[in-house]
Every structure is written in structure tokens, then in C-alpha cells.
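Work Package 3 (structural annotation) set out to generate three-dimensional models for the target panel prioritized at the project kickoff. During this period the team completed the workflow that converts sequence records into C-alpha cells, so that structures can be stored uniformly alongside our sequence database. As a representative example, we reproduce one entry of 399 residues exactly as it appears in the project archive.
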Amino acid sequence: MNPVLRIKELGQLIQYEVYDYYDEPLFLAYRDELGHFYFARIVNEDTESNEWIFVAVSQNRFNMIRSGGLDINSAFSQAELGYCYHIGFKFGSQTPFFEGKINCESIPQSFLPHQGITLNLKTETLPKLSEQISERAIQTKRVLVNLHLEFPNNLRTEAPISKLGEILIATQDLLNAIGQAQKERATTRGVVPQNILSTNEMLLSGIGAGSFELELASATLSNLLDEAAIADSINEMVKLIQIGTDGEKLKNRLSQLKIRVASKYLGFLTSISNEVISTEVKWASPLPGKFGKAEITKLNAQIAADSIKRIEENKFNDIEVIGQLVGASLSQHDFEIIASEKKYYGKVDTSVIDILSGAILGNTYQAVIREKHNLKVITGDEETIYFLISLVPIGDDLQ
């Protein structure tokens, strides 16, 4: 089949893609001068000529057939126009020696491949977003973030909305947590202050191919004050991703940003490590020189998440109390003291074991109790543990 055809009813057709070939193309696509697509399949051949069927397809139908969403049999037998073109060519000729139309229901089965045969070619069904993210940031006067998500076995530019929703929520939550850690005293739980939510809010502003790309834009136009808030949060998010799987660096950085950021970054990593093969984050500000990018694979996201799950935030506070020793176990290294109607129960430090062995239950003691708070990133649960590190008898108990 010639790469350029001149057909009376269809005009000039230019070869677009070849899908099946044996000495010459057997199944291919053409495109006319207006950008319309046609699939063409050889159906008969002799020593002097061959016969073809052509089917006109819309851009959406072309994408579905090319990506395997619709089989080749259906492309012809269920044509959008209800008919195909039956055209014959002499060898070496660009113009047909006969051409006509054939209704779909009248197409001989010998003209069609078996049902279920598909092309399964990766097809971008959305236009790509511009690579010039810095330029777009300047044009829109907004801070922009592009999330490039590579989904497995995705032949079209499509993505599950439940997964996209999870990723978008995790991204916003992480930016809010970082914003709070950067601008004021970070809290472990509770509502993030409204001023942080406002300055860190992102909006979905575009969707494109490559494999699946989301463009997020700051909710407010950028100025020297607001731009700094959201840009700093995004930049910190990118830096966390750039750390990758280095558990020690990740722990050190998250310890500075506090436990809420650690928890939300864990949520972000979890959201992109279930079904996404790789994730790339690009960002740009309208201000010159403020941009960046980071990429993380599914495996590295899982490794980083496992590192965060092992992080616990520990806080110590030594409390001096005067109370009654109501329980003690040398074998279990346990103690129990009641002071000011509050009960302290926990473990005995090794340095106090000898003193505890001579202590008398019911007597009053001056004690130093170390209060340790453990906060687990993975669950957000806080655990308080008490350690007895000093025990001194007082008053009449000295006798």
C-alpha cells in the first residue's frame, strides 16, 4: 500500500502508522489533510491488485482502538458512520480502480479478524501540559506544582479517581503540616490553624498526558508574603522526596519538622506506593530562580515509608514528687507511688534498685520520676511511661 493515496470521496490520505506488515503493510492507519483518521485492512489480493476496507474513526475512537480498549473487529463491524469503504488498487497506483461503501452488517466475515484481537499500544489520550512550568507560573502569577504519576499497564491517559483523590488529599495534608511546622509551633494533633490552611491551599488547575500529569496551582495569587509561605512548604516537600531512602537523614530532617509532618509524609508515601510506579514532582514560583523537582519510585517510596514507621518521638520530663510507696517489685523492676492523689506506675531505673530493696511499702518518700512520652508516627498514638530514678525517705520514715 502506498504511503500517500488519492481517493475520490476521501481526498488525499497520508500513511500515519503501520500495525501489521508482511512484505508490505496489511493493517495500518491513514490521516487526511483535515486530521481525520482511517483504519485500513487488506481483504483480498491477486497478482495484479488488492482490495481494502477503510473505516473512518473519530479521535476518541482512534485512541480507544489503538490502546486496545476496542478490538479491531469492532472498529469495522461497529463503525461510527455505520459503513466502511471498500476500495481496490492496482499495484503501484495511488488511486483506486474501484471504490464503494459497504454497510457494517453486510461486511463478509472473511474481511474481519477474529473478535478480541486488539492493538494494545500506549496512547496519550490527553494533550501534554507545557514543560515550561516556570513560564506558566510567571504568566499566572501563581506557585505551580506538577505531579507526574506513572501508573502500571495504563495504555490510555486515565487514572482511578479513588487513587487520585487519595494522592491529592495526602499532598495537601503534607503541605499544611509543613506550613505549620515552618511558621508556628507545630501541634501533634488537632486542627491546623486557618491561616496556615489558607496560605497553603492548592487547586487542581490542569490534567495532561505524560503518563498522567496533574497541575496544582496556589489558591491565591502570589505576592512577596503569600508566595513565601506556600513556596517554602512545597520546597520542603521536594527536599524530603530528594532524601529518598536514607533513613538517618530522613529521621533527622523529620525530627526538626516534628511528628505531624512525619505522619503526613508517611501518608503521602503510602498514597503513591500502592499503584503508582514512579512519581515526579516539579514546582515553580513566579519569582526568579525559585523552582525544583524530585522523583521517587514505588520501591523507594515503600522503603522510605518503612523508615518513617520506625521513628518515634521521645520527650523526657523529670518530676519531683513526695508520695507514698504503695507497690514495688524487685524481680519485675516495677514501682507504684501515689502523690497528690495521682498514681505513678512504671519501671525502676537500675541505679535505684539497691535503694528500693530497703524501702518499706506505705512509707513516704521524695522521688524523682522521669516521665517519657513516646509518639508513634505510624499510628499517631501517644504513650507515657514512668521511670523511677531517685528515691529518698523523708520525715519519720528516716528512723
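The mean pLDDT is 90.
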